Amino acid sequence: MNRRQILRLTTLFGACALAAPGALAISHPAEQFPIDEADVDRVPEKFRRQAVSYSGPEKPGTIVVDTANRYLYLVQPNGEALRYGIGIGRQGFSWSGRADVRWKAKWPRWTPPAKMVKRDPAAAKWANGMPGGPTNPLGARALYLFQGKVDTLYRIHGTADPRSIGRAVSSGCIRLLNADVADLYERVKPGAQVVVKQGGRKQPERAAPRLEAREEPRQEKMKPKAPIVQRNFNLN
């Protein structure tokens, strides 16, 4: 798969990526694939990971997604939060509310929904699933969002296309740069609450939140206590 095909998949199907300035890639012994950071300078400074003041009512450990401003906040103690720039899907504007992180996965497998397979040849090739890796639309990490026992089919995940950060261009999820989603992955605990806020006014540098992502669940230790009931939220 060439670079143009990779970018097409990540643009159409959702995925996210962000990075920290300096290195070209993160390569740790425990990391299955290098995490490319070469494109971080193409992301506007306001969308780069940073600590900010936060005055919302959410408790520490909560993820708040601000769709209007293209930010994801991980609430910290003492009136602070870690803020990440995100990309959202066009469908993302149709969903808001609360969910929880039921499980997470490193270099997750991606299986396109049946409707996507029918309408796009690039997706049809992976009807039985695409293994995790640098070309996978879900990127380096994925957080799977549930409402009770119901899989929302939304994911917070990585992307190989930094151009999508700050934009609403895909067919549905919340994506961060791969380096950012890897950072978020390590900080988020099982059962963490996710609040997705739609609309609202755009703000300079502080305040509100938002979301995106969908795919095939699996991996990681966090198994639901009760049988999972999947429901189609019509994201396509």
Question: In the CATH hierarchy, what is the architecture at level 2?
Answer: Beta Barrel
Can you give the mean pLDDT? 78
Low-confidence regions: 1-25, 206-225, 228-236
| CATH topology (level 3) name | L,D-transpeptidase catalytic domain-like
Quaternary assembly: single chain
N- and C-termini, Cα separation = 24 Å
The tally of strands reads 14
Number of domains: 1
Q: What's the helix-strand series?
A: HEEEEEEEEHHEEEEHEE
Beta content: 25-35%
Cα-based radius of gyration, to the nearest Å: 16 Å
CATH superfamily: L,D-transpeptidase catalytic domain-like
Shape: globular
Task: Please explain how this structure is put together.
This protein is α/β, with parallel strands linked by helices. It contains four helices and 14 strands. The chain has helices at residues 3-13, 114-119, 121-124, 178-187; strands at residues 25-26, 35-36, 50-53, 63-66, 71-76, 80-85, 87-89, 97-106, 141-147, 150-159, 168-170, 174-177, 193-197, 229-230.
Topology record:
Layout: H1 3-13, E1 25-26, E2 35-36, E3 50-53, E4 63-66, E5 71-76, E6 80-85, E7 87-89, E8 97-106, H2 114-119, H3 121-124, E9 141-147, E10 150-159, E11 168-170, E12 174-177, H4 178-187, E13 193-197, E14 229-230
Parallel strand pairs: 4-13, 7-11, 10-12, 10-14
Antiparallel strand pairs: 1-2, 3-6, 4-5, 5-6, 7-12, 8-9, 8-13, 9-10
Task: Give a quick rundown of the structure.
With 236 residues, the protein is of the alpha/beta class. It has helices at 3-13, 114-119, 121-124, 178-187, and strands at 25-26, 35-36, 50-53, 63-66, 71-76, 80-85, 87-89, 97-106, 141-147, 150-159, 168-170, 174-177, 193-197, 229-230.
